[in-house]
Write a structure and sequence with these properties.
alpha+beta; 46% helix
Length: 468
């Protein structure tokens, strides 16, 4: 099945950050670790051979407040129980000889450190912010990421591969209390045709000559690569870091960039000019570690003349008029004229990357498309409008409102995929809960007297051995 993703505003570096990292909660965890170190410590729980300290609980409590995700109920009950549950999974991992792929761990740690640098600054600033040396920061991230990966693997083994049939989903729907079904806001289905303005060879030559000039200045020692990247790179996300992207594996880089980046040997040399969907790059190696490479780059994009922009707009207007006059269908026009490779093989139908289906709430659509679609009727073709495509390039587009689904309670006809996910979530929760209740019977648990007066989610933590 082909997937046609919706348009997003992005840059070369933001593209990678969106692929590799979408949360900053670990930043709060590590920063609040400084606070936890000042807590007068005591052991509050013991699970197997592992102790849970008061400082651990305080750190998690402060982190939840920072994230705005405070647990329901007494945090001094829910947080240690959550931590104890994680230790059950880690204990099972030892029994099952489940471990994390260290390359994957290091890759994620490098990505998170690169993210921290983009938010806070260089290593000196990171050390000041966290009150720790860089080695300590990396060690804590290593442990955090490693445990996350291991727990995910254990849970996946417990749950197995849940693949409900339509009949099972229907039975689930028929049995569920209809008042508890989620309310679905208004949704839309959208088709798009985009036409990129022509890029003239002289504009490409101008960019290449500029990059050749940068190569010469760097190799002659007249300017540093990072300075030129900061001043001139059109990838604004990495330009703030002197063009540095952080450690990446081949699969995280667009193929053309990866091929050259992984061929570089000498950090003092500058690569040849590389063309990708984002534009034209020159690349410098910073460091390579096995199958990961840290590079900096300068990205330039050829300028588009006003005349070529006008020509693309007029062409898009003509396509829209031909569709309205029924000389051609929207789907035929997509195949013939749309220049966006992400949508032209799917009849222009956009796929929501969050849900995997073709339905969007308006707030989930690119703002420029959302504002166009909002007043339209089903089947209507929009006026031509300018926007940025997935690579941040200028394009002209028309959209068709394929369908509009009014706000409603979830039902089998319109929301099968959502109900399927609810069913999978329910079955997953049931399997995990049953496993935890059984696992509690086989692991030594001791809860501090002062921490027992709780209504735990999983009964069984307080055992006879904890009363001795």
């Amino acid at each position: 099945m082909r997937v046609c993703l919706f348009y997003v505003r992005t840059s070369f570096s933001v593209y990678f950050m969106n692929k590799i990292f979408a949360t900053t909660s670990f930043l709060a965890t590590m920063a609040l670790g400084v606070f936890a170190q000042n807590v007068v410590d005591e052991i509050v729980w013991v699970v197997g051979d592992e102790a849970i300290l008061l400082s651990d609980v305080e750190e998690q409590r402060m982190r939840a407040q920072y994230d705005g995700s405070s647990p329901v109920g007494d945090p001094y009950c829910t947080i240690p129980e959550m931590m104890a549950t994680q230790k059950l999974f880690l204990d099972q991992a030892i029994l099952d000889s489940i471990s994390a792929d260290e390359k994957q761990v290091q890759q994620q740690v490098d990505q998170r450190i690169s993210y921290l640098k983009s938010q806070i600054g260089n290593e000196d600033r990171l050390e000041t912010y966290f009150g720790k040396k860089m080695d300590k920061i990396r060690d804590e991230l290593n442990e955090m990421v490693r445990n996350q990966i291991i727990i995910q693997q254990v849970q996946k083994k417990i749950v197995g591969d849940i693949k409900p049939t339509p009949a099972e989903v229907r039975r689930f729907y028929n049995q569920i209390n209809k008042d508890s079904l989620p309310s679905i806001p208004e949704q839309v289905e959208i088709q798009v045709i985009s036409v990129q303005p022509r890029i003239r060879q002289e504009a490409i030559d101008k960019v290449k000559n500029r990059l050749h000039e940068f190569q010469d200045r760097i190799e002659k020692g007249e300017s540093s690569f990072s300075t030129l990247a900061s001043l001139y790179s059109e990838d604004l996300g990495s330009a703030r870091q002197g063009g540095e992207l952080g450690f990446m594996g081949k699969g995280q880089l667009v193929p053309e960039y990866a091929e050259v980046a992984f061929s570089l040997k000498d950090p003092k040399r500058v690569s040849r000019i590389v063309k990708s969907d984002f534009g034209y790059h020159i690349i410098q190696l910073i460091e390579r570690q096995d199958e990961r490479v840290n590079t900096r780059h300068i990205l330039l994009k050829p300028a588009i003349s006003l005349a070529d922009r006008d020509s693309a707009k007029l062409a898009t207007d003509s396509i829209a008029n031909a569709i309205r006059r029924e000389r051609i269908t929207f789907e035929q026009a997509v195949n013939l004229y749309s220049t966006d490779k992400n949508t032209n093989k799917c009849q222009g139908v956009l796929t929501n990357p969050r849900t995997g289906d073709t339905k969007f709430q308006l707030q989930d659509v690119h703002p420029e498309i959302s504002s166009i679609i909002k007043p339209m009727n089903v089947g209507e073709i929009s006026r031509t409008f300018a926007m940025k495509d997935n690579n941040g390039d200028d394009t002209y587009a028309i959209v068709k409102l394929r369908n509009r689904i009014p706000a409603h309670k979830a039902n089998m006809t319109e929301d099968f995929q959502l109900l399927k996910q609810l069913y999978i979530s329910k079955k997953t929760e049931e399997k995990i809960s049953a496993w935890i209740l059984e696992k509690q019977k086989t692991v030594y648990v001791l809860v501090n007297e002062k921490w027992r007066n709780c209504n735990f989610q999983y009964p069984g933590w307080i055992k006879d051995n904890s009363n001795k």
